[in-house]
Amino acid sequence: MTATLAISSSVIAVIVVVLVLDLFAVVLAFSFIRARRAQGAVSRAAAGLPARVAEEPARKGPKPVTRREFFRQSMVASFMLFLAQFGGASIAFLWPNLKGGFGSVINAGTLSDIRNQIRSSSEPFYFGAGRFYIVPYDGSGVDEATGADYETDGVVAQGLMTLYQKCVHLGCRVPFCKQSQWFECPCHGSKYNRAGEYELGPAPRGMDRFRISVDGDTVLVDTSEIIVGPVRGTDTTGQSPEGPFCVGG
């Protein structure tokens, strides 16, 4: 299946804001420089001095700073400080690999702990920082009619599967309904079975996935690459709703 880059609209928005602020800072700085040069030219003309003569005294002693110049310099310094802080925060947000967050390979915990939590709660294991669910999977892994092959895609390991939390319709986070044992989107009613395969609603396909692997007893999820969900009609589990729906009755 086709893989897509995990770039969200919020990341794009931050990049655009940073570029706009940088451009504004450059324009503001140039306007201050031009204003100061023009003021200097007027002062020299009023004194009847050529440029070289007017510049010479400035080397011998500090030039008095007017209130207007002090205010302008303070504004520029404050704005530059804000840009530096904002830029640092933006870089930290856009570079998740520094701390092993979304967009990198994430240690989700131990295999035994994840299985125990799923068994005791009757719900998927949710990892908020990685934006994914880990669900138990005992299906065939293959749907010949639609071409789905989870083993080849690497989204299944030792009876576990990883699902991206976003609805493939318009991007809402899809919670798990404990009553029906399906994923049900509260925004527009799309529904997926426990394996994230499409069942009902406007979603164009099943939930997207991440590759999962087990190293010893450690579960690793690669969130740097989104594996596009299976097409409509894919059903490798045969799971019907096990109770009333949480969304849409």
Q: How would you describe this structure to a colleague?
A:
The chain has 249 residues and is an alpha+beta fold. The protein has 2 domains: 3-94; 105-227, Rieske Iron-sulfur Protein, CATH 2.102.10.10. Helix content is 37%, strand content 22%. It contains 5 helices and 14 strands. The chain has helices spanning 9-47, 51-60, 67-94, 111-121, 150-153; strands spanning 3-5, 105-110, 125-127, 132-136, 142-143, 148-149, 156-157, 160-164, 176-177, 182-184, 191-192, 198-200, 209-215, 218-227. Strands 1, 2, 13 and 14 form a 4-stranded antiparallel β-sheet that branches. A 4-stranded antiparallel β-sheet has the order 3-4-8-7. A hairpin with a 2-residue loop joins strand 7 and strand 8 (160-164). Helix 1 (9-47) packs antiparallel against helix 3. The chain is elongated. The two termini are 34 Å apart. Residues 1-7 have low confidence and may be disordered.
